[in-house]
Design brief:
Blueprint (H helix, E strand, L loop, with lengths): L2 E5 L2 E4 L4 E8 L8 E6 L6 E6 L6 E3 L7 E6 L4 E6 L8 E8 L13 E4 L3 E6 L1
Parallel strand pairs: 2-11
Antiparallel strand pairs: 1-3, 3-8, 4-5, 4-9, 5-6, 7-8, 9-10, 9-11
């Protein structure tokens, strides 16, 4: 199991940027596909982006393509989500997650992920 702690959320105006971080510990971070999900008020948690275990493939939900970038620094055991051109529709609690099994490929399915952080709030004002 991987333990995850997100940070970097906050309040930003429309068009602004935020860079979320997710510090991982407890297991071999570099062996796991990782992802970000988000949950807006009154809505179910939804896939945002994922990166496979060897960083060769990244996938994004359509609404964030070209604006969000997922990356990781294996030396620092940290996953990142750079978010640009933010809109009020991006307001949500953002969750970092690690794949249920090591050496997995990217997937938008929540059931493929087994470890979750506590979430960090992102609020975009209009």
């Amino acid at each position: 199991q991987v333990q995850l702690v997100e940070s970097g959320g906050g309040l930003v105006q429309t068009g602004g940027s935020l860079n979320l971080s997710c510090a991982a510990s407890g297991s071999s971070f570099s062996r796991y596909a990782m992802g970000w999900f988000r949950q807006a008020p009154g809505r179910e948690r939804a896939f945002v982006t994922a990166i496979d275990w060897n960083d060769r493939r990244k996938i994004y939900t359509d609404s964030v393509k070209g604006r969000f970038t997922i990356s990781r620094d294996k030396a620092k055991n940290t996953l990142y989500l750079q978010m640009n051109s933010l809109t009020p529709e991006d307001t949500a609690t953002y969750y970092c997650t690690a794949a249920r099994y090591p050496y997995g490929v990217t997937s938008p399915r929540e059931t493929e992920f087994g470890s979750w952080g506590q979430g960090t709030q992102v609020t975009v004002s209009s």
